[in-house]
Amino acid sequence: QVQLVQSGGGLVQTGGSLRLSCAASGHTFSNYAMGWFRQVPGKEGECVATINWNGCRTFYVDSVKGRFSISRDNAKNMVYQQMNSLKPEDTAIYYCAQAYGNLLTIQSYEYNYWGQGTQVTVSS
Fold this sequence. Notes:
- The chain is an all-beta fold.
- The protein contains no helices and 11 strands.
- Strands 2, 4, 5, 6, 9, 10 and 11 form a 7-stranded mixed β-sheet that branches. It has a 4-stranded antiparallel β-sheet with strand order 1-3-8-7, with no helix packed on it.
- The radius of gyration is 13 Å and the shape is globular.
């Protein structure tokens, strides 16, 4: 049974940093691309970052480029998102997700397993 368990997140002031972690189990983690999504109540969710199966390729939504960094450690079955220079508009529930395949994708329907979500709140 595939499980994605998230940790990290919390409350931080504008300009601060947080690191999200996602531990995968129950499958061959290195076979799949991974992504981080965020959801604000009343708004459509978005993929903020994605990484391919071996970590050699990444994608970031424009609003987080230069501030967020996605990485993975296939030996530890972990994916991370380092978030720097946080802004109030980054406030959301963040989810890690595993894609069906091993290539980059930003479409939520191409992800079949999801973490439990973690709240990130950036105060102004």
